[in-house]
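Supplementary Text 2. Reproducibility record for the structural model of the 228-residue chain.

All settings were left at their defaults, and a single model was retained for analysis rather than an ensemble. We include the record here because the model underlies the residue-level annotations in Supplementary Table 4.
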Amino acid sequence: MQNHGLSLRPMRQLLLLQKFLQGPPPVSFLLRECCVLLGLSAGLLIGISTPVWAIVHHPSQAQILEAIEKGQEGARSRNPPNILYWRFGSSDEDFQPQGFLMTKLSGIAVMSGHFALRGEQPSSKEIQRVLDEEALQVVVMIFGDSPTFAMDSYLLLKQGNRLIKPDRIRFDARASLISHRHGKPVFRAKIVSSFVYGTFDLEAPTTIKVFPGAGGEVTFDLNFSAIP
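Retained model, structure tokens:
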């Protein structure tokens, strides 16, 4: 049986990973040391662990380290950190509804990217604040022809026959004018809802149902288990 180097000095590996949340050693140092101990390159380490978009309530230390490196990698490429959120729907150019999920792992990756662009690294306390979040945030952008079209908007998750209500929800009472189309103004508004972990299935096919305040319904069909 091949062990791919993963059983090499397991106690030291575990202690090293635990240091991440216990103290302030530089993340780059921890990543280098983990790779040396595991006998892997940083690229292979990322390749064998869970990607940063998955919805994980209790991320492992390996997943946390990967998310940090993913943010640093994006910063080295000068990419905006916010692109690390897992997105669904259309694009701004289409003026069609769209959104993204703010998971714990993607939140760490985005924060790491922002810090890396300033030549800094997040502290263990800052990482822990993200890990302590008890809700998945679902963010949706919708478009309309009035600055108040999103007032009193609402959002639900549907899994099978279950409708899951958000713990918290907020919306743009006044939408932003972003363009004109066919001689008419186009406004964009954001709806942010929070769903407490444990109230929904992390791996179920899910429909995001959005009810703009001006009327109508917008839906997004996702499969949480298929998010890479």
